[in-house]
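Example record

Each entry pairs one chain with its bound ligand, pyridoxal-5'-phosphate.
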Amino acid sequence: MNIIDLRSDTVTQPTKAMRDVMAIAPVGDDVYGEDPTVRRLEERMAEILGKEAGLFIASGTMGNLVALLAHAGRGEEIILGDCSHNFLYEGGGSSALGGIHPHILPNQDDGTLDLERIRLALRNPDDSHAPRTRVIVLENTHNRCGGIALTADYCNQVAALAEERGLILHLDGARLFNAAVGLGCPVTDLSEPFDSVTVCLSKGLGAPVGSVLCGSRDFIREAHRMRKLVGGGMRQVGILAAGGLYALDHHLDRLVEDHENAAVLARGIDEIDGLSCPQAQPPATGAWTNLVYFAVDGAAIGRPQFNAIELSKQLKSRGVLAHALASDGKEIRMVTHLDVSSSDIETALTKLRSCLSGT
Ligand SMILES: *Cc1c(COP(=O)(O)O)cnc(C)c1O
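Structure tokens for the complex follow.
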């Protein structure tokens, strides 16, 4: 059976052409700064994002960790959303390893943090009772908020506040290129407001491994120390960086196809009795991208036991993989990517209809 894997955009297989360039990539010992392919990737990503320097990192999680360790010290505070990947899914790393204190604000439906709430959350640096606020963290696209793209206008407003109060602004841009494509704006409009930015190569871009952290030369020097500290110094890693370079050359322009597929999927899902997908409608601000979240309501079709977990099991037996969110048994996520075609989307919708109608 041909499996259609919609669990995540991390499941992509490197293409033959990508593997070919990886196999012949010139390499060196990157801990000594001697891997020419890694250097090319770091310089290239920094240039694309309009930053002075870049650092190749094993994962997005490690990229955010290293950035926060470089930006903040023990007892210092980071402001971030309660639905952010960094808060929910990264093992509490900055707190576990850096003693950094998370200050959580509610994410609004569009993935943003309310500016006034941020303002109220900022600590008085002269108050010895309070931790010191150091960093504000945003996420774009916002994974748990439907893969929504945050606008440059919003990011600039947060940047102005950060600047006014002498704070650092970090972006978890795991899917930043999806955001730029979704909004139809240059990626630099979305990276420019931030002091540091992480971008994943292993998601929509389809490379097997890695993220790049970008920022000022001084910041990257410090991040380089922190990468070593967490055991992330790698040796002939140009083999992996070559996959990232290939992805930047060949897989950026096609992201629009993933977004079109996701839109077709969202609209199709919303038409099925027992399923609802808010992403079938355009968002009030920002843009949907390649993630589709939808809710299962078994009671609405007279099958109260039928929930997200049951649906994902039935889909699996029909060759379609989806990610049921363990947290509520209601929601399911499907993600479009390089290895999913428009006809796969039609097939997935057919299978969804058959699960819901019980045929
Ligand atoms: C996937 C993801 C990360 C972490 O990336 P890994 O490479 O899986 O560690 C960080 N932030 C967001 C928003 C993500 O979706």
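The chain has two domains: 14-250, 254-357.
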